[in-house]
Amino acid sequence: MGNCSVKSFCRKALPPWPGSPGSRQASGSPRSCGDDLVPCLEPFPEGLGPLTVRSTRLRAGDITVLHLDACAGGIVRLDRRLFCRSKALRALEARLDRRDAWTRRPSGGGSTSSTAPAASTASAPPLSPSSSSSLSSAVGIDGAMAGNGVVSTAAAAGSIEGSSAVGSACYLDLRISPPHVVNLPVHVCEALGLPPEEEVHFAWVYPVPFEGGQGGETSEQSSPVSKHGADSEADLASDSTAVGDEVDQEDPDVSFLTVGGYIYFRPGRGPEPGLDTRTPLMGARFPRELDLLSARAIRFSPSGALQFSSPRRWEPRWTKRLVQQGRFQPITARKWVSAGARYLCWVRPDEPLPDACGRTKHLAHHGGFAFLFHGLEEPDTDQRDRYFAIVAEPDLARGERVSSVAPDIVRCTTSLPFNLMETPRGHSTAQLEKLLELARRERWALVRHLLAEYPHFAAEKDAKGITLLHICAERNIMDAELLTSLKDHGSEWESTDDLGRTPESLASRSFRALARTIWGLSPDLFEDPEGWFRFWDRNANGVLEPEELGHALASAYHCDDVAVQWVKSYVNVNHRSGVDQANVLGPRGLLHMLQTSEEFAGLRQKRKPPLFLGRDGPLRESDHVCLLHLEDQLERLRGEYGWQAGKPAPRQALPLPLPAPSPEGSADPEERMRTARGILGFTFEQTRGLSGHAWRGGFRIDFAGQQGLDDGGLTKAWAAEIAFALWGDNVLFDARPPGVFFKPDDIETLPLDGVQVPSVDIYSWTGRFVAYALYQRCLVDCRLCAWAFRFLSRAGSPRHFFHSRCATPEWDDSHEGEDSMLADLASLDHTVANNLWRVRHEMSEEDLRWLDFTCAGVELEPGGGDRQVTGADKAVYVRLFCTFLLKQRCQTNLQAFVTGFFDVLPARLLQGIPEEGVLRLLAGRAEVSDLHLSELEAIVVPAGLVPTKLRDHPKLREAARWFFQSVRAGDHAFRTRLLEFWLGVGRLPLAGVATLRPRPRLQIMVQADGPRGVKRIASWQEDRLPEGHTCGNELWLALPESYAQLHEKLHLAVENFEAGFALR
Fold first, then answer.
1. Alpha helices of 346-462 — where are they, by DSSP H?
2. What dihedral do alpha carbons 511, 515, 518, 519 form, nearest 10°?
3. What is the 3-state secondary structure (H, E, C) of 251-265?
4. Structural element, H or E, at residue 1046
5. Eight-state DSSP code of residue 177
6. N or C terminus of the chain with fewer C-beta within 10 Å?
7. Which tens digits make up the pLDDT trace of 460-510?
8. How far apart are alpha carbons 762 and 753 in whole angstroms?
């Protein structure tokens, strides 16, 4: 079995591709690829089907076999006269005339089957969709040409004007797969209308290339969805105009010829001795009339009997073999092409294909479909190629049955056809009307089928302004997956129809709750939360213990066994001490979290949401108190070295001359990174040899070309530039879903400003910088993963310190300990943690057998590459996987970071604070709510108004009121920008606005004018823009004449300033 690397396993929503190189599936065991599979009902390309079949008008004697090969398939022929049987076929005939899709041979020589030369019984050359070579040696008839599934003799017979030229007979030649005996279970045969009591053979018939080569090799420069083949736009317009809506894609005959279908037939007289009895007609002489039982077109049906497995990895070596045999043909169905698929191949039952070692492997016991998402000569660079195997046990509880193999033409409202890419005018409107009508009839599987073909219908309105979301709301469709799909494709919650109704006005309370969650709003999950709490508080002690809380949440969401374990793990990770009533019903309590949680909304819809989200949880009040205490300790430590908030750097601070930074918001990110990396290089060289005592003494920042004292503002700007240089790309750190992390230990040097520097030196210096930023109370965009700070906190406490190779585990050998271990891993990579949780609790033995004891190509134990994960040892696998990522892969670099941090700040400062407290203090709070603005206003008015002697004057109070009114009117972006303009950073301290140092001040530029009056300072006329002075957290403002004047000038200044300096 292949390595289970982080990239190949932990980044995919699906399990690892079955059939991948190195898989241990035994050759010659086809039932392992079919009978053990379960149906997958996801839309394409995550699933295929279910499909049902509809009989066509073709009957015995209509199909002639021109050539048949056991491996490559062959060619069958239909006489043009068959197209007179219906109006739909005549319309298709006219379309084929304009495409010149017919095979012609001179008439007068009798029928094809009686006068054509016999084909050789030897294996014919493979037929490639892109080939234009002669097939005369293969089919023995008229030198027919094989191209995109159609055989044409126009080149050999000479130019023939018109499809009904005098003296010629016309035929339609189609490509078919290698035939095989029907080996479906009896109940599936009965559901399909096939006689189970006799031997029946079948083959897949590829369609006419009706789209002009959707998958052709000439389409590299255009999307498969928008490409209409080699025909000109005029030809396509001519088709739609001439034929219009008469080409009926609902008609089974049209669908059979333009999308594809199955033919079922008797094998006829037995083959010659010694030939394979499972491949019919092998050894027969061709042409040969087929003993046809039925020809069936495929349709999508939620209750179809042909159901398929989840997608499985299709190997490039299989593609090469089947392309050589001409088995892959262009796709014409809109649904598949819209998803990016370009070529299709029917994989016959027990298809013999080579495994990674060259041994024969039997694939898809009952057959299946393989899809290519690229050109035939192109590699599968995105690893999207896949196949779907027919399952032996479909869910036929609601299955529809076809009456018999007779060609009864039945239109069934429980299924939908596969539409073509090329459509006549008015087709899209008709399909939208069909989609809405299906929704009104609550045929949701069919709705999903059409929505997959036409995703833009999610936002489309009909003639009355009604959208699909209106119908879902009116019928109270509590389907989070469907609603999420509608949202992702542009459906608007506020959309109104012609009567002014919105989905919200039509919805029930429960639908509104779910929809608000999906659209980012706040749903209500319970009507009586107090009663719910009292019921589950079995001990009546006012606290829901972890066990009680787990049972309470599992019952509230009607969880199955796996979901119950998910809820218990959630409680172990987030509520290890239980919750009291205040923490459940309070404004920031558990109920509030449930009301806004997409994960619990998904759990209510019987889906298992990810346990770890990669974002910070709410901070408890006790944690706030601890962080405030840390702030006070840091302030005292700064005072010991002469630092005072809002004052210039002390005299003993070391000068740090640096190049000037780029203006904030520079339109050139590369230029911003170049200058920031230059600042980092200069800083690193000047400070790398300094002691921790020198760092605590601090630096006086001096940017080139920027005069002024460093009263704190320049230090803030410097810290922001260093943070951007360290974590703004993946040069110095590796990207992880929550942020960045250290490079592996085997990377010994890193580039810094054009020089290779030992990685441990860079990471040790990074620890010093993080400590110094915390020491100087700088808020920075610290993207370092939270695990670094958890490790830092534990390393600072002797009872938590561990060595990378320590034999004693860090986590208890229990479910609670395992959940804590995964929570630690989630602080490094929540995607990997979620996947390992599924390995532990959700994956079946079938899924586990694709995993081995490796991680990122490294064996987790000696011989791990040869050890397969099973249900008995999956807990060991999870523990070893976590240990490798958390303790071993980056241990040296992580330890260097910790050492650098504690060089600057003593470890005792971190005792008692939350493990991620340092990260939270550095990052601050990005949200600037109205409550925060009210707190800021209370600090500034009146104590922070300047001039202090005039702070109670009505004019100053009015200006301050207008100022905060204007700030509240701004959006989140403006508020963040204002903080940066005023305070030097666009975030607030985590401990609250009250901890801002120096205290923010608002200076109205006035002076006293007589005993009661004020007037503007001469240098600050009313047209002067506001100025931000970040060193002292001051904002200077000219005395405004009106609110409108202040609002205009404040927005002009804030939205156009450059970092650190006012716009004058």
1. 427-440, 444-453
2. -170
3. CHHHHHHHCCEEEEE
4. helix 1043-1056
5. P
6. C
7. 899 899 999 999 999 888 888 888 889 888 888 888 998 989 898 888 877
8. 12
